[in-house]
Amino acid sequence: MANESRPCPCGIGDRFDHEGCGQEVQVEHIKAYVCKPPASTDEAVVVIHDIFGWQLPNTRYMADMLAANGYIAICPDFFAGREAWKPSDDWSKFSDWLKTRDARKINKEADAVLKYLKEQCGAKKLGVVGFCWGGVAVHHLMMTYPELKAGVSLYGLIKDSDDIANLLNPTFFIFAEKDDVIPLHQVTLLEQKLKKNCKVDFEVKIYPGQTHGFVHRRREDINPQDKPYIEEGRKNMINWLNKYI
């Protein structure tokens, strides 16, 4: 890690002042935030939160953005009732906290959410996006659930393993050039493994000058040189979903 005292840079960025256009629902054993588009649709996207949990306004802002682009968007509590991380928490205890919240052990929650989307929302075409912790979760789900037709993993820590390229459907990986936690050589290695072994469409993109969390943790007006990349990241995310869902 670049900095053991701050092992995750998710504290960087803004907490949006966003009320949310959707509503909270109960999905079996977990709660979720759901936002639906004005027109009826059978296309839905699961939005997976970062370490700050499903109630973070920034993540709901992303869900509302997807709904505005025609998707049923659902942001479930993948921590299943356990406490989300708070910026005021002791970062020296972060590693222990994270051990109890493995982004690759969420199948029970994913099963419940996909069933809800199909049975309660009439969804037939499904995708998934996720940020930071949620980016790791997206990578896992895209290797596990064939019904997820498109995935976008945004700055998820790269877990190097033999099966890293076993994607079942098209997946887009977004990274920041100046991410303190995800070194660029790891991104390069991921891309090499995907090129060698991946059987489906994929893209790995590094956004110049950006830091961890830039797509969902930074305001468009933060400064002039970053604005185009923040907007581009969001546009690329939606275009990928549009292309494959």
Automatic annotation (TrEMBL):
Gene name, per UniProt, is: Cmbl_2
Q: What InterPro entries does the database record attribute to this sequence?
A: AB_hydrolase_fold (IPR029058), CMBL (IPR042946), Dienelactn_hydro (IPR002925)
Main localization of the protein?
Answer: cytoplasm
GO molecular function terms listed in the Swiss-Prot or TrEMBL record:
hydrolase activity
- Annotated family: Belongs to the dienelactone hydrolase family.
Domain named Dienelactone hydrolase: residues: 30-244
Lineage, top ranks: Eukaryota, Metazoa, Chordata, Craniata, Vertebrata
Q: What name appears for this protein in its UniProt entry? A: Carboxymethylenebutenolidase homolog
A Pfam family in this protein? DLH
